């Protein structure tokens, strides 16, 4: 079916944000109501390609080549009966039921596509989150962030530059140590620390003279009293032990008070030298959400009902990290986790089919299936939760296997089983013919 065959009278569902949740939603809607011409589906994103956000720490360390694991939105739209529009949302007109997109310019600043409006019958906002630096002095000026692929690749280039500088000194000279600080010991911070240590070992095997893994000083700083404060303590204990065994210095219980060009200053007065600094603590909704006229909370998430409809407008939905959704009547909110966005995408898929059939909407019920933390090639730790198994603690290779399977499930939702199997075979072949680390 070509897009031109979809009736212009069919309801137009516009999804802003091509992250894991948004992309899974438009893919499923396209395959069902889009293919059957019951609705027009449009995805809007500021980038041309998608990469699974939990992989960005691997892009930063260089253990994942982002160009090999990216998905092209235009191709995905063609294969799955939805439209794609390149653009960044900047405004909302609820009276006219339209959104405004910023103009698009090339690298020289020359305007390629002017500002434009897109009308909708139903709008879904799935723009994810950005890192929350809590207005810490010096954070925005001196820290790198890992919200996007471009930021992860920028960090990787900075890290490689430091190694190349040391490599040029030669093995006979005293190496310059690389002092690296990661602020925030949540899942991203912990996984990045382990991945960077793994990358240091690989760089040594590729003949980077003058540097050893011990010459990379990694400091992992957490304001709470333990790493992974949002997860059960029985997970954080084994993770801390692995990090300590790798030589990562874990500092807990003292927030960062100020950041300068080459130093972190903790609230307890300790000063930590750091030429590379990554802020990986906290989230908030993208800044433009505060200008849309929708109710938001203190970290700029859109307030939604349990149907995932905005509390201000039943034709506007929001889900994932950018939405504040009540978990129950206790006032607790659904946590900003990948599994929550996946579950909400599944609910929205069902609800849009119900909307088109004039059936009442279902309410979201969050189910915690546990947590898995990857410590690169060294280990993985986590717990799985289910009706039959209860809560099962996993470590080592078994936990790593389950961790990898999460990405394969995401691929299956986007590509289907046959193509996912082909991708798995391609990955296995590629590992035998390509460097295990991106060296440029």
Describe this structure in words.
- By secondary structure, the chain is an alpha/beta fold.
- The protein folds into three domains: 3-129 and 285-356, 3-Layer(bba) Sandwich (FAD/NAD(P)-binding domain), CATH 3.50.50; 139-282, FAD/NAD(P)-binding domain (3-Layer(bba) Sandwich), CATH 3.50.50; 370-433, no CATH class.
- 33% of the residues lie in helices and 24% in strands.
- The protein contains eleven helices and 26 strands.
- It has helices spanning 20-34, 56-61, 66-69, 73-80, 139-142, 149-169, 187-205, 233-246, 338-356, 396-415, 417-433; strands at residues 12-16, 40-45, 49-50, 71-72, 83-86, 89-93, 98-101, 104-105, 111-113, 116-119, 122-125, 130-131, 178-183, 216-222, 249-252, 256-259, 263-266, 271-273, 276-279, 283-284, 302-303, 316-318, 323-324, 370-375, 379-386, 390-395.
- The strands form nine sheets. It has a five-stranded parallel β-sheet.
- Strand 6 and strand 7 (98-101) form a beta hairpin.
- Helix 1 (20-34) runs parallel beside helix 9 and helix 10 crosses helix 11.
- The longest helix has 21 residues, at 149-169.
